[in-house]
Structure formats: C-alpha cells, structure tokens
Specification:
The complex is a heterodimer of chains A (422) and B (420).
Chain A (H helix, E strand, L loop, with lengths): L8 H7 L7 E6 L4 H17 L3 E6 L4 H8 L5 H13 L2 E7 L14 E5 L2 H18 L5 E5 L2 H7 L2 H18 L2 E7 L5 H9 L3 E10 L2 E10 L13 E5 L4 E4 L6 H6 L2 E3 L3 E4 L2 E7 H15 L1 H26 L4 H14 L3 E9 L4 E8 H6 L8 H15 L3 E7 L8 E7 L2
Parallel strand pairs in A: 1-6, 1-7, 2-3, 2-5, 3-4, 5-6
Antiparallel strand pairs in A: 7-8, 8-9, 9-10, 11-12, 12-13, 14-15, 15-17, 16-17
Chain B lengths: L5 H7 L7 E6 L4 H17 L3 E6 L4 H11 L5 H10 L2 E7 L14 E5 L2 H18 L5 E6 L1 H8 L1 H18 L2 E7 L5 H10 L2 E10 L2 E10 L6 H5 L3 E5 L4 E5 L2 H9 L2 E2 L5 E3 L2 E7 H15 L1 H27 L3 H13 L4 E9 L4 E8 H6 L8 H15 L3 E7 L8 E7 L2
Parallel strand pairs in B: 1-6, 1-7, 2-3, 2-5, 3-4, 5-6
Antiparallel strand pairs in B: 7-8, 9-10, 11-12, 12-13, 14-15, 15-17, 16-17
Classes of the chains: A alpha/beta (422), B alpha/beta (420).
C-alpha cells in the first residue's frame, strides 16, 4: 500500500509525490515552532487516516496531554483517527521522559511508550516500534515524526544529535519509509541548522516578518527534492492553520513603497511580490485591449463579463488581505481600496458610508477612464467589479455597484455607488 | 577526453586526464547541483567513460527512482546496462550492517560501510575492476557529497581523504568530481577543498526581500585570462528533464526599470512619463479564460492575436525610430521589452530571420500559472511574436504555439514563418 500525498495542498504542490524514503525537515523560529509542529502533526494524522503508520517521538508532550488536544487536532474526526490508529497498532507514541523507564509501564496501551532521554535508547525504541508495526502491516509506509529535535540540544552535543538524525534518515531511505523532523533554529548554531536541513530532501522554513508594525508568520520552501518537477516557490507565503488544514494565501503590499521594494524579477521570467506573479502593462495598451473586447462583444456582454472578472479579482484581494491582517471588515475594505491606489488604477478613496449601513460611496481619479477617451457612458466596469467583489468576499452577501460619474464622460472624478442587495 | 556540458566545457576547456572538479552549492541550490552533477556523469558515461559513484545519502534502492524523477526514464537503460557490464560502480554507503537486501544482479553495486578508509579502499578496488574489463576508458570518481561525510567523520578526515583522491586522480589520469554544501562548513574547509581542485563551479542563491535567486559561477578554472574574466560572470540557469541550460542574468535590468517606477499625485504609476498598471498575472488569466469560454477558442484567438500583433508592431516601430535598431538586435530588444515585465523569458531561438522560419522557446509565466490545459494557452505570445517579426522584417509572419507548458511540456514552443 502506498500513501502518495500528505493531504495538505501546499505541501503536495511544492513537494510533488510523497515518495518512498523521503526525509523532510521543518525549520522554525521560537515564535513559529508550534505552527511547524501543528503542520507536522496534521501530516502524520492525514497519513494515518489514509491507512499509513506513524511513530511519533515527542520530547515535551506526554501522551495523556496529546489526547487532551495539545496535538492541536481540534476536530473530533482527527482525534478519533488518532485513537483508532493507536488501537490498531499503526501509531506508536514515544513519550521521551527524563527519568529511568526500566520498570515503567504505559498507562495507555503498548503503543504508547515512555522512553528514557538517551539517544541510543530513542533510536532503539524507534527501530523496535517500526518492527512491531511491520509485523502486522508489512506493506504500509511508516512516517517517523521527530516533533522537537531541538529539545535534545539541551541534553546532548550537536555532533551526537546530527549523527543520530543522519543514521535515522539513512535507515528511512533504505527501508522506503518517511521522516519528518521539526527544529527550532534559534536554539542551534547556524552550522548545525544547515547540517540538519542538509540531510533532508524537502525543507520548509517558518518565521515571522514584521509589516507596518504587525507581525506576520510566513512559510517558505527552501528545498524541494526534484526542482524541475514541481512549482518552485521563491518567496515567503502567509499561512493559516485550522484544526484540520494548513493553507497559504498570497500577501498584498500595503503601500507603494512596500510594493516597489518587494517587486522582484525572477530569472525564470517572473515578476513577483510576496509569491504573487505580477505583470506590468502600459495602461494605454490595457485600455485598448478592453476597448477591442468591448467592440467585439457589444456593451451588454462586455459589461457582464468584465464585471465578473473584476469581481473575482476583488474577491482575491479581500481574501489575501484578510489573511494578512486580522482586523475589521471596514478596515479591510479601506486597505483593499488603498491597494488599488498603489498599483496604477488611480487614486481611490471611500467618500462616505460603510459596510454596516449597506451603502458606500467610493470616489476615484481613474487612470483607466482618463486613458479611455471621451465616452457617453461610464467606462470603469472592471474597477466597479473589483470593488463589488471585495465587498461580497468580506461580507458573504450580494452587493451592487453603479458608476454614477466617470472621467470619460467629462466628470472631474469617477464615483461608484455600492449597495447591499436586499 | 570527453565533453561534460556545453557551458562547463567552455569554462574548463578539454576535460584533461587528472582533472579534479569541485561543485560548491548552498542549501537552497543543493538539489539543482545534484541534478547538474547527474547531467555531467550521464554525459560522461554516454561517451563511453567509466564511473565510480560514492553516494553518501542515496541508497541504491532509490537510485532508479531518483534518475526518473530528476531526468526521465531515458537514461535508465544506459545506467542499468553499465552497472551490469561493470563499467560503472555504485558505492552504496550504509550506516551499519544492514546488508541483507538484494542487489538485483548488478555487479557494479557495492555496499560500503560508512568508514573513510573503507570508502577509499572500495574506490581503488572498483577502479581496478573497471580497468581490468575496460583498460582504455577514462574513469570519473563522483563523490556526492563531501558534506555528509564531514558530518560523519569530521572535516580533517574528509579533507585528507579528498586530497588523497585528487593526488591519485592526477597520478592515474582519472577525473574526480566532488560536491560540497558551503553552508555547513567554515570557510577554511571550503577554501582547502577549492585549493585541491583544478576547476570549481559555484551554485549559490542570492536573497533579497525574502526571495531567493539561484545563480551559477565559475570560481576557478585552468583557463587563463582574458577569457577567464568572461566566463567567470554570474549566470542564471534553468533545469529541465533533458537539459541544464545557462542563461544570462537579467534581474539587474529589471532593477533599473523598477528604480524608475513612480507613484504620481493622481494615482498614476509612471515610468518615464508612461503610465503603467501593476496587476497580478491572475487578472489576465481570469480575463482570458472568461473570453475563451464566451467566444470559443477560435474567435478568442483571433481577437487576442489581432490586438497583440498591433502592439508588437507598434513597439518595433518605436525601437526602430528611437534607437535606430534593426535585424536580430531589434527583435531581441522588442521581445525583451515585453517579457521582462513579468510574462516570461525566451530561452532560445532556432532558425533565422532571413530563412523566414523561427522557433522560439519560451518559459511562459502565463502558461505556468494558467492551470492544466489540453491546448496551448499562450495566444498572447502568438500575436506578439508575429507582430514583432512583421515589424522587424516587413513581411507577414504567422506564429503558432505547438507545445505549451500548460499542457505539461517543459517549455512553450512557437513556430513562426513568413506567409507566402
């Protein structure tokens, strides 16, 4: 039996196949170690749910506390899967304790073992647990999850830890199993961290960035096993962890200076900022493209289609912002409008109203309208769609958007009336 | 003696007997470097050379899967055949006495206990065996990787080992290629390894704003000045299943463009008085998908190619009148003008303007982000290239995308020809 995916979309996309003999490492800082462990636990649980087996080595978490929810599985399904796997003998939990375990029995089952804090002992118990699993489940892959390598650093010298992990990984490769280690890089010298990650084929880095005084956790893929077979990410992504999933969302810059500073050319031909691909197009060219499309489709169809595109774009903007900034919908709407103002659409501002009242008036100096030429009807269909999409994503309700004034019609500014659809 | 890869041959000259090569990587580019040494070794074996591979982290049981994932199935018969005939030896380092697995009838696979003296002994023994069966062929010793051995034995032991290997290599007229991850070691260790080597290639990454860029650079070469100065430039590269290709680094051109981007009072984003829109690529993808759904593939293609063709033509006219360019240079500048703004990059062109036939290979950002498709999606490229070619030559060109990354190909391939 083969388990070929982790069930976490981001990991599967950047890793490719979960192949036999794969060693993985998550390197986190002190603030994100829990997040890295939560992702590791989720992967372990997903593998167990798919019929795989797992040996969990926890240096700081007795099994009784793990079952109480400290493994961070908030959904009943995940807890049930954990208990089922223990019951079937597919999960071994090695509870590393500081005292002598010679006469110590587990309070839970044979699969939950107190293990003395000794590298040789831990290694022995891992191999023992694996052979027990293989007795009953000879063809299932076994994930060895070392949830906190860094705790060992307090008790043992780095050389011994490195040699143990290297030995373990070589064994995993030879037997076609899986290894996942999680380390807090702030506890080790740089050389030790690089040596540990050097041993793995797939490496994720967790950390914290600070934007405008707000802390933002990020994940970044620093090694993939076969670079030409997966989408390579070069930058950092914001992420969210729920009880049963982990996902990333692209971040958006909040000022023009931030956008400019973080806009990079990747030698593969991408222009990216925060892992989002951007293109820089002449506004006049873009307007001509829209005019060609309008001429081809006719005004009615053009409005319908472009509004729908705008709405999707707006919805993505709102999702990205709400991932980055945990703040009120009113604030998020304002941030989204500001985002339009820094990317070349023109100068937008919320003139009056708010989400709560269901009526908002937005005014703008639309660069698109200014480049459009004279028109007897409003032309900022795309921007209107974007504003509508932002509001619909934030409120999960339908809104309408009407452009009541437009520079292309001779008005001084464009004006959008946004109303909650009753 | 033999060829390795075009750009290495250019920087190294002939792969002389007794050459010691070192590839230095960092943690981010380790997997690229492993692929690169794979290309070098496979090319050497293809040309009839013998090879002894010391693999510190890849058990033999994973070798064929690794080759398949890294390259394709194409090299597998070559490797299998060479292992069976004893032209290549695979020294499979094991951590302990776990030796009971089957070797699958491959005479060239040797299990070696992880001990520095034992490894050196097995390299010598494998060499003798190859020379006995194939007395006249050159032999390459591939050590991948020295860093894992330093974790196992310490740097002093591995430095002595590498020195012995390079000295023996020179005495015997073999070739040695070692790989080391510089992030793990003191600069003294890396410099000592460089000191022992004749040819040193560095694969490293540069990080700016959290974004890592891989580059390749020749650090040491037997070639003397002034040619050396030219080849020691930093280059970008791409890896596909069939090629490791060096490409000129262009980030600095974009940085120059970026520095001139301004946000004006009225909300215009402007560069040299031209207004620009900086929008996620996905905006275009959503737009193109909607249009294709609504109009059907043919009408959609007609609409977009017609429009972009005129854009291409206009651009060429601008470059002609403003900078007085023509011919190949005009073509190159006009194409780059668009692509450097996030649409992708041309990897190579085959054919010529004069012959009326061109093949363009594009790493298309649009295709890579489009999602899977059963037909080519770079309609924009078709229109743009035909417009630019028309502007450059004065002839009518048609351009069709024959292969597309959205369909699963490594690169997008465009065929352009003059309309009769």
């Amino acid at each position: 039996m083969k388990v070929r995916s982790t069930g976490i979309e981001f990991v599967d996309q950047t890793l490719g196949t979960l192949y036999d003999g794969l060693p993985m490492m998550f390197s986190a800082d002190s603030a994100t170690t829990y997040d890295a462990q939560r992702l590791g636990n989720l992967i372990a649980l997903n593998i167990l749910e798919r019929g795989g087996a797992c040996i969990l080595i926890h240096e700081n978490l007795p099994f009784s506390l793990a079952l109480e929810g400290q493994l961070h599985f908030t959904t009943p399904e995940k807890r049930l899967a954990l208990q089922k796997a223990v019951g079937e003998g597919r999960l071994y939990y090695l509870d590393v304790v500081l005292e002598d375990t010679t006469n110590k029995e587990s309070e839970h089952s044979d699969c939950v073992k107190p293990v003395e804090n000794d590298l040789n002992r831990i290694m022995y118990e891992i191999l023992n647990a694996k052979s027990q699993i293989k007795k009953d489940f000879s063809d299932v892959p076994v994930l060895i999850l070392q949830a906190n390598i860094s705790s060992l650093a307090v008790d043992f010298d780095p050389g011994s830890i490195l040699r143990m992990i290297r030995k373990l990984i070589l064994r995993v490769k030879r037997s076609g199993d899986l290894f996942l280690g999680i380390l807090n890089r702030e506890l080790h010298e740089r050389k030790v961290v690089y040596s540990l990650t050097h041993l793995a084929d797939y490496v994720l880095e967790f950390g914290i960035d600070v934007f405008s005084g707000k802390k933002q956790p990020y994940v970044s893929v620093t090694r993939v096993p076969f670079p030409n077979s997966v989408k390579r990410y070069y930058g950092k992504s914001a992420y969210e962890i729920t009880g049963d999933d982990f996902y990333t969302l692209p971040s958006l810059p909040s000022s023009f200076e931030e956008l400019k500073e973080n806009l990079f050319y990747i030698e593969l031909g991408d222009v990216i900022a925060y892992d989002t691909n951007y293109v820089i197009t002449g506004m006049r060219t873009f307007v001509h493209l829209l005019m060609e499309i309008e001429e081809k489709l006719g005004k009615g169809e053009y409005t319908r289609i472009i509004k729908r595109v705008g709405s999707s774009v707006g919805s993505q903007i709102a999702r990205s912002l709400s991932c980055r900034f945990q703040t009120s919908d009113e604030e998020l709407f304002k941030s989204a409008v500001d985002y339009l103002s820094i990317t070349g659409w023109g100068k937008f501002r919320v003139l009056e109203g708010n989400i709560k009242s269901g009526r908002i008036r937005v005014e703008c100096l639309s660069v698109l309208a200014a480049n459009y030429g004279e028109s007897d009807y409003p032309v900022c269909v795309l921007e209107g769609g974007i504003l509508q999409g932002i509001l619909e994503e934030l409120t999960s309700e339908h809104w309408t958007c009407e452009e009541t004034k437009c520079i292309a019609k001779g008005d001084k500014k464009c004006r959008f009336e946004l109303k909650l659809k009753k | 003696m033999g060829k390795t890869l075009d750009f290495i041959d250019e920087a190294l000259g002939d792969l002389d007997e007794g050459t010691s090569m070192l590839f230095i990587t960092d943690s981010f580019t380790l997997e690229y470097t492993l692929t690169l040494i794979g290309f070098v070794a496979l090319n050497f074996i293809r040309q009839g050379g013998g090879c002894i591979g010391v693999f510190t982290s890849l058990p033999f049981s994973l070798l064929f899967g690794d080759i398949k994932n890294r390259f394709s199935e194409e090299p597998l018969p070559l490797v299998e055949g060479s292992l069976k005939e004893g032209r290549i030896y695979y020294l499979d380092i094991v951590s302990d006495v776990d030796l009971q697995e089957s070797l699958g009838g491959f005479d060239g696979v040797v299990r070696v206990t992880n001990d520095s003296d034992r490894i050196l002994y097995e390299i010598d023994r494998s060499r003798e065996r190859i020379k006995k069966a194939f007395p006249d062929i050159p032999i390459m010793v591939l050590y991948s990787n020295l860093s894992s051995s330093i974790i196992d034995f310490g740097s002093a032991t591995v430095l002595k080992m590498f020195r012995r290997l390079t000295v023996k290599t020179k005495q015997r007229g073999d070739i040695i290629l070692g790989l080391v991850n510089r992030d793990l070691h003191d600069s003294r260790v890396i410099n000592t390894l460089i000191h022992f080597s004749d040819f040193v290639l560095e694969l490293s990454s540069e990080e700016r704003g959290g974004v890592k860029q891989p580059y390749i650079q020749v650090l040491k070469s037997p070639i003397s000045e002034p040619k050396l100065a030219k080849i020691q430039r930093k280059h970008a590269y791409i890896i596909t299943a069939s090629a490791f290709q060096r490409i000129p680094a262009k980030a600095s051109f974009f940085d120059k463009f970026k520095r001139s981007i301004l946000l004006l009072e009225g909300g215009e984003v402007s560069v040299n008085n031209v207004e620009y829109l900086i929008t996620p690529l996905n905006t275009y993808i959503l737009l193109f998908k909607e249009l294709e759904n609504h109009l059907g593939q043919n009408e959609y293609r007609k609409l977009i190619t017609k429009f972009v063709r005129t854009v291409g033509l206009r651009t060429v006219r601008f470059f002609k009148s403003e900078y007085g360019l023509d011919g190949d240079e005009l073509l190159k500048e006009a194409v780059n003008y668009f692509l450097i703004r996030g649409w992708g990059r041309i990897i190579k062109m085959e054919g010529s303007l004069n012959s009326g036939r061109l093949k363009l290979y594009l790493l298309s950002a649009l295709a890579r982000n489009y999602g899977k498709s059963n037909h080519p999606v770079c309609v924009l490229g078709e229109g743009l290239f035909s417009g630019i070619l028309e502007g450059v030559t004065g002839d009518n060109w048609t351009c069709r995308e024959k292969k597309c990354m959205a369909m699963g190909y490594e690169l997008c391939e465009f065929e352009a020809k003059v309309e009769k």
